[in-house]
Amino acid sequence: MKFPVNQTFFGRQLRALAAEVLALVAFFWLPAPWSYLSYAAALWLALEAWSGHCLLNRLFLKHGVLGGELRRPHRDIVIFAVMTAVFAVAAPMSVFWSQRLLVDDLGRLQVAYDQAVAATDRRLRVESQDAAVRLEIVLDDFYRRYRSYRPFAIKTDRQLGVELAQFAELGRPIKFEAVQGDLGQARRLLSGPVDFVGGIMARNRLSALSLALVVFKEAGLVTLLDAAERGDSAQLIRQYDNLNARWGAVEALATGPEFAAVRAAIEALMDAARLNQTEKLLPLAKSLRAAFGKAYFFRD
Prior knowledge:
Layout: H1 9-29, H2 34-51, H3 55-62, H4 73-121, H5 125-146, H6 160-168, H7 171-180, H8 183-191, H9 196-203, H10 208-229, H11 233-251, H12 257-274, H13 278-297
Helix pairs in contact: 1-2, 2-4, 4-5, 4-8, 4-10, 5-6, 5-7, 7-8, 10-11, 10-13, 11-12, 12-13
Keywords: Membrane, Transmembrane, Transmembrane helix
Protein name: DUF2892 domain-containing protein
Transmembrane segments: 77-97
C-alpha cells in the first residue's frame, strides 16, 4: 500500500504551528533539562512538518516502502532556514519578555508588602486595612500565576515553591488582624517571612535595577501622575520624600543620561508644585513619564 509523501502547503502549516506551540509550552513548563530536550524535539517536528516529508519518509522511500518522490528540495531548504532563524530569535525573546513580566510581578508584590509594613508601623487602621487587602489580592494573584508555572528565569529555583506557599498563607491572617484585630499582631505577621522577593532575585540573579524601576513606577510614579492631572500641588509635595527615596534607589544602581533626565524631570515638577503653578503640572508630569519610559524600557 502506497502513502502520499507530499502534503498540501496548508496542512504543513497547521502541523508546524502545532509543533511550535508544543515547543514553547514544553520550554516554559517542563523543568530543566527536560525543557531543553522537549524544545529541541518539538522544533525538529516543526521543521519537518514545514518540509512536507519527514526523515522517516526519506528512509522508507530509500527502501521502497512508500511511494512517491521528494519534490522541490530547494524550496524545502529555504523553509528550513527560515524556520530555524525564526526560532533562533523567538526563543531568546520569549525568555527575555517572560523575565521582564516576572520582575514586574515581583515589583508589584514588593510595593504591596512595603505599603502594608509602613501602614501597620504607624498603627493607622484605615490605611492598614487598605494595604492588607491590596497585599492579599497581589499575593493571591502571584501565587496562582507561579505555583505551577515557572518562567525560564526561575525554572531551577527549587526553593520557590516552599517559600511561595508559606508566604501566600499569610495574606488572610494579616488582613484579619488589620481589619478587626490587633495592628501590632499584623505587623508581627509581616515580619515573619524572610525577604521573599529579595531571595528570588538573589537566587536567580535577576536584575536589581529592573526591580527598583518597577518599584518606583508602582509606588511613586502612578500616584504622582494622578495628582498632577488633578492639579494637586499639596499632594505632590507630600509625595516628594517617597518619590525621592524610590528614585534614589535606582540612582544607586545605575547612572546615565536617561536616569539624569528622570531626576531633572522630578525636580522640575516639584519646583512647579512648590510655586503652585498648577497649569505647568500636567505638561511636566507628561515629560517625567516620557523620560521614565525610556529608562524603564531599556532597563537591563
